Amino acid sequence: MIYQIKESFFADKIQFIHLSRSGIIKGTDNYLFDFKEGDSIFDAHPFFESIQYYFNAEDGEEFSIPCVHLNIGENDGIYDIKVYIDKDGVIVALFDFTDHYNESNTLSQEKNESIIQAQLLKEKEEFKNRFLANTSHELRTPLTTIMGFTTILQRSNLSTEQLHYLDLIKSSGEHLRNLIDDILDISKIEMGRMLIKHDRFDLKKLCENLEAQYSLNIKAKEVKFNIKLDSSIPEFLVGDKLRLNQILTNLIDNAFKFTKRGSIQLNISKLERKSSDIKLQFEVKDTGLGIERDKLDSIFESFIQVHDDPSISGTGLGLSIVRKLIDILDGSISVESTKDVGTTFTFKLPFKVSSNQTKEEIKIEEPKGKSSDKTSILVAEDIEVNQLLIMKILASSGKYFVDIVGDGDQVVERLHQQDYDLILMDIKMPKMDGYDTTRFIRNSEIDAIKNIPIIALTANASPLEREVCLGIGMNEYVGKPYKEEELISKIDRLIKEKKANQ
Amino acid sequence: MSNSKKVVLLGHFGVGKTSLMRRFVENAFSEEYKVTLGVQIQKKEVNISERKKLSMIIWDIEGNTTIKNTRLSYLLGTSGFIYVFDATRIDTFNDINDEIDYLTKQYPKAKIKTIANKVDLINVQGLKDLLNNKQIQCDYFTSAKTGKMVNEMFEALAKEIIKE
Which residues pair with A85 in a beta bridge? Predict the structure, then answer.
């Protein structure tokens, strides 16, 4: 009884076919497919033709080929197939699992589609990031030349009018550099590659620097700038000073952009303090153009500019960067504004109170021995116009002997021929690049070469790039376009440190 | 014995294995992605010369991120492998050198072709540079959608198989 039920249950799901070793059908139950005795199974479907090598196997062997699509005549399904080799020939068993496989098909379809979509999205994001990084590099290189030679030209004998034009070139260059930085920043934040630091910093000092920075704007415009710092806030905090400064600078720059007269006020107050955790509120209040109510919601979006005034320039990324930075610093921001009255941005950020509230004087000892000796610098830079710029900058200070080479191979060659006090190393160079050249130097067996200070000069300007450069053994990093004073001060500091250690 | 040889299409899912087979056998193409479960098989006769023909029995097997996860019974008795990757998705060719090494060691007699598919969607020179940087050898740059190099690729493989 049970066998009859079993047989009737599986009858239309299984078919057995008896074949000769040459594939001729000797017998079949035809439950699934209608085959004729005497025909070749190889003509029924190419699948059988492609497994004929199984038919020459030893007696007693069996093979299993699951999930095979077979469409023969009107039947179209998915089968698990077993092949048994026997002294009487070959038995092929077909098991119909069409329903079972079709059910799992839906799940596989959804899973595969979502993985493919995620991979394509990742490709697009990476393409965007690569594009932005490359574009930034390509833009920075000529900008370095423009800015550098403008500074050099300013020192030559020029008329007041010519100097005024140079000022305009320089301020446009600075503006362009800020725009490039903005585009890179937004891309890094969106890729989750923005590194957040937790360093001790002096909040009071940060405010003093902001006051100094904006004093020029105050002179130029009829706008007062004032900072009010709550005296109960400890002076030394732990957090990301660079990003806090970036947020404040963006908001204050924005305020100056839209305020023609009146005042801009930065208020910093303590919201709460629990043990070493402290939460601060920053308020940037202006008496500027104000923003219409219906546009307030969109001001933090990328590439949105709510004012149509063509004289107010920008990428529309500043406030988007501000909000995204505040998000990754676990803070919050809000805005209130009245048209023609002014705007107030308020943001809250958590910090830690530093356990050390004393000021530390950083002293660099004067070098021992003769300090009047000229410093000899080896510059590795492949682009001719950049070579000329560096030569001009270093030569004009009168403190340095300068040698210039165009690739990493030549750096190594020169170091073995002559002693240098410091290397300025471009990163992207033909033959051996700046990274490999630095690795080579740091692995040298000659102490004078191994320990030579190296400053990276790169158009790949980013905190990540800085960490890479320092990580492989460079001592300092200067992003292009650089300021002459910054470069000279870093060279001098490293030379002093080197001489002090000798 | 008929003069037929088994050819297997390998590669990650969604790279266009089924589309390549359909373009070659039926000269048809569909934009719709439909997952392949298990294996589907089609046959096409290729003229090798005026007097010589070869029936290619093409096994289009389900996509897998690595050949090691593919059912062994799908791969046995294969004369030619076509390893397909998606030119628009780097994840489908990041490990290709390991995959080809594995195939070469496990099936030393089989002929192997490496195919970049969907090249209608990309800048081919850019892909060639990328592959060059990654030291990836690619035999054909195909598009199942436009038919570019599809027949040429299958026919070249057929000729190589028949040479043995």
Answer: A90
